[in-house]
Amino acid sequence: MAARQAPAASGKDDGPAQPQDRWILVVAAGLLSFVAMLDMNVVNLALTDIAEGLHVSSTTAQWAVLGYQLPLVALLLPAGRWLDQVGTRSALLLAVSCFALCSVLAAVAPWAGWLVAARLAQGAFGAVLFVLMPVLAATAVRPQLRGRAMSVPATLGPLGAVTGPVIGGLLLDHVGWRAIFLVKLPVCLAALAIAHRHAPHGGRLRLPDRGSLGDAALIGSAVAAVLLGLTLAPSSPGWLLLVLPAAPLVVRWLRRPGGRPVAAVLRASGTAAVNGSVLALAAGFAATHYLLAQHLRRDDGISATTTALTMLAFPLGMVLAGRFGGRLADRWGARPTALTGAAVTATGLLLLVPLDTDWTPADISWRLALAGAGMGFNGGPVQAMVMSAAAPKQLATAGSAVQLARSLGFALGPALATAAALVGTGTTAVRAGLALATLAAATAVALLALHHHTDRGSRGSRAKNATGSAITDSTASTGSAESNDSADGTDSTGSVTSSRA
Predict the structure, then answer these.
(1) Exposed e or buried b for every residue in 458-487, given b needs 16+ CB within 10 A?
(2) In this structure, which of 171, 175, 295, 401 has its CB flanked by the most CB atoms within 10 Å?
(3) Are 95 and 129 in contact (CB under 8 A)?
(4) Residue 199 in contact with residue 89, Cβ under 8 Å?
(5) How far apart are the C-alpha atoms of 182 and 180, rounded to whole Å?
(6) CA-to-CA distance for 37 and 276, rounded, in angstroms?
(7) What φ, ψ does residue 141 adopt, rounded to 5°?
């Protein structure tokens, strides 16, 4: 509603349709998505260099990655609740400025504790950016163009995640590990300038309530338990017991005021399966990327630059397909497009499972390009499915839920890949990890198909109840309108009228 009112207040005579389409804000959302996801993976290749440069162990250096991922995942949902109560423009300017500042602090870190603290703070502001991205894209254009708009941040986000090691490899070979924290600054400054000039005014900042901080503690503890258990399992399977406390922590959170609205949004919109597919596909992609990067550098002895160029095939395929994914979703439908994309990604990952030491980088590249194309087709449409099903006042909460699913998948992927070492070492472990990644992608396909089946069943039941409660011709017309809404993939209720249809 705010997105529609803002243009009217400007006093322009262009009509109500054109001022709603602020594609410059969609570009800003894409830029922020790129830098936020890039930061989740750009440090992976630099862990050895960080450990040597700061004179710490590899386990300590790994907290340069975990220190960013933990607050990012833990604060996504609380950030969604907070953003529903404050001004979007003020929150955007604050988050981008502090995110860039933390990058500088990480680059000049004199010791490991400083670096980890900077990354923890950066992850907190990154959580705000993750929630703001889909809200900006969803409110900047008309609903008819939402699939196209969502494809921008949904494509550039994973693009940042995959190009992170590419950029990191080039910088490590030619500049040094500190430069990887500074590479994001130009993009942050560009997004900051766009937001300052074009973001609509209104609303003020306020401190988050104590309940949100408690929610963050519960979610963060659950995620930390899972990540630590999976990461440490190869040294001793007993570490997997750390995963057990995660379930009661999540149950406790769902019973709190912070968890109940999220559960209500998922039930009302019927997008639980869609969010599950986002998590599964992101986990499969992240595990594959982590395994192949380590395999090329460690097992094949390929340089960081060559590894970076090989891994570049994935984002290239994703960008090319992402250009058409949103358009297909607007014409063909979001669910069929997202389902097709997930199936293509699963096929590409399946072709990587028989990985052999005789494979050249080109043999890996074309398979990665196929998987990337599937991610490009899937990202925008699946985001549009979630945001279109949410009520206008719940966009931030719905956006935070899908971003949590995606971020959790990216965080769990490398941990799952590490746990695959339980079955062996070297190429055997890599193949096992790739098989797990393929299984995760196949799960995403099944969840999207399940969402369609459940969606039709639940809405058909509502239509049946509506027609059974009245015998007039207008009620029959209502049932027809509801069926049409269901086919379009939008949320409808038994009170749909003929005029709305």
Answers:
(1) ebeebbeebbeeeeeeeeeebbebbbebbe
(2) 401
(3) yes
(4) yes
(5) 6
(6) 19
(7) -130, 170
The tokens describing 49, both together, are 């260099």
The CB-side HSE value for 370 (13 A sphere, CA atoms) comes to: 14
Q: Are 120 and 112 in contact (CB under 8 A)?
A: no
Rounded Cα gap, residues 54 and 236, in angstroms: 27
Q: So where are the chain's domains?
A: 2-6+13-465
Beta strands in 296-380 (DSSP E): none
Give the global pTM: 0.65
Amino acid identity of 206? R
268: number of Cβ within 10 Å: 15
Cα-based distances in Å from 405 to 49, 89, 408, 416, 468: 31, 25, 5, 16, 38
- Within 13 Å and on the Cβ side, how many CA atoms surround 268? 17
Tokens 């862990």 appear where?
47
DSSP conformational letter for 498? T
pLDDT higher than threshold 70 for residue 364: yes
Half-sphere exposure of 280 (CA within 13 A, CB side): 24
Q: What is the CATH number of domain 2-6+13-465?
A: 1.20.1250.20
Encode pLDDT of 235-283 as tens digits.
Answer: 777 888 888 888 888 888 877 776 777 777 777 777 788 888 999 998 9
* Structure-block tokens of residue 159: 């693009």
And the tokens for 113?
Answer: 């504790």
